Amino acid sequence: MYSNIIYLDFDGVLDDITSRVLDNIAGKVLDDVADKLLDDIVGRVLDDSKILDIIIDIC
Question: How confident is the model over 11-56, as pLDDT tens digits?
């Protein structure tokens, strides 16, 4: 006779869920960091161009 035994791999399921959650968190953190860096770079470029305009106006 066969018994209906189902083995659940809770460790595998938890590992999968944990890795997906961590991937999502890491992705969001990296997106935020990239956005802040881009804003900072654009802000500095704009500031530099304003300074350049002022120098050109003075000359």
Answer: 677 788 888 888 888 888 888 888 888 888 877 777 777 776 776 7
Q: Domain range holding 41?
A: 34-59
Three-state secondary structure readout of 10-57: HHHHHHHHHHHHHHHHHHHHHHHHHHHHHHHHHHHHHHHHHHHHHHHH
In a domain, 45, yes or no: yes
Distance CA 56, CA 59 (A): 5
- How many structural domains are present in the chain? 1
Q: Is residue 4 included in any domain, yes or no?
A: no
Structure tokens of 11? 């460790």
Q: Is residue 6 part of a domain?
A: no
14: which 2 tokens?
Answer: 């938890």
